[in-house]
């Protein structure tokens, strides 16, 4: 049987083969290295995807950031993405800014301190000029996101107000039902993520958002789905 290049069947087979290869590489990294599902997820959502990280995925990552080991992995990836910023790979930087903004308002407070050294790099992004074939001004979108992140990184009243606003929003969503799940401390429920006491003690019981076992399963599922879409 012969498949002609450029046909829907050929393109479909090519996409399936690509996904299969990526899944094999992902599985090998999980088994053979110390990489974690959260780390893979952060790498995928801050890549050059034409779509930005969604709220659910960022929520899983921000909750994971309260674990010491995952925190280090997450900020390392973001530092690497931002420090390697190039105009032709602007989507990586933009997706990283989207995730960084979420972490600044919903993750550990130390995130703001961690990324103050990236101010000059983020300021470079303000000059991006790009309008796509549909007429959307991505340069302006990147500029607006960069300006907001820079303002959050300054800390002070603005950061506190935005964190409080995010906290109230999360509580409101939680009050409506099942969109947010929080880990409650019981002797019978396994805590698969170690707690970092130095950061943990700063938060009230309602603000502690350590991922539970279902979160870990969702991280793996979301990561696989993202790979399938690429």
UniProtKB/TrEMBL annotation:
Entry annotated with the keyword Zinc-finger: no
Residues annotated as domain ENTH: 30-163
Organism: Rhynchospora breviuscula
Major location (coarse): cytoplasm
GO MF annotation: an example: clathrin binding
A GO CC annotation given for this chain: plasma membrane
Phylogenetic lineage: Eukaryota, Viridiplantae, Streptophyta, Embryophyta, Tracheophyta
Keywords: Cytoplasmic vesicle, Golgi apparatus
GO BP field: endocytosis
Annotated localization: Cytoplasmic vesicle, Clathrin-coated vesicle; Golgi apparatus
UniProt xrefs under SMART domains: ENTH
InterPro entries: ENTH, ENTH_VHS
PROSITE patterns noted in UniProt: ENTH (PS50942)
Protein's name in the database: ENTH domain-containing protein
Keyword Zinc: no
Leader sequence residues: none
């Amino acid at each position: 049987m012969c498949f002609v290049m450029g046909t829907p069947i050929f393109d479909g087979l090519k996409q399936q083969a690509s996904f299969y290869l990526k899944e094999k590489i992902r599985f090998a990294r999980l088994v053979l290295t110390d990489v974690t599902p959260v780390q893979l997820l952060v790498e995928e959502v801050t890549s050059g995807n034409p779509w930005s990280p969604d709220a659910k995925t960022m929520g899983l990552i921000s909750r994971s950031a309260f674990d010491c080991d995952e925190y280090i992995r997450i900020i390392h990836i973001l530092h690497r993405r931002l420090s390697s910023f190039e105009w032709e790979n602007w989507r990586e930087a933009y997706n990283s800014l989207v995730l960084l903004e979420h972490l600044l308002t919903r993750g550990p407070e130390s995130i703001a301190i961690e990324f103050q050294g990236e101010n000059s790099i983020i300021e470079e992004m303000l000059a991006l000029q790009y309008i796509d074939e549909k007429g959307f001004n991505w340069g302006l979108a990147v500029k607006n996101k960069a300006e907001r992140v820079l303002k959050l990184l300054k800390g002070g009243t603005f950061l506190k107000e935005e964190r409080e606003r995010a906290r109230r929003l999360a509580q409101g969503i939680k009050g409506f039902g099942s969109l947010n799940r929080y880990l409650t401390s019981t002797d019978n429920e396994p805590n698969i993520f170690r707690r970092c006491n130095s950061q943990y003690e700063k938060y009230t019981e309602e603000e502690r958002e350590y991922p539970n076992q279902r979160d870990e399963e969702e991280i793996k599922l979301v990561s696989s789905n993202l790979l399938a879409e690429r």
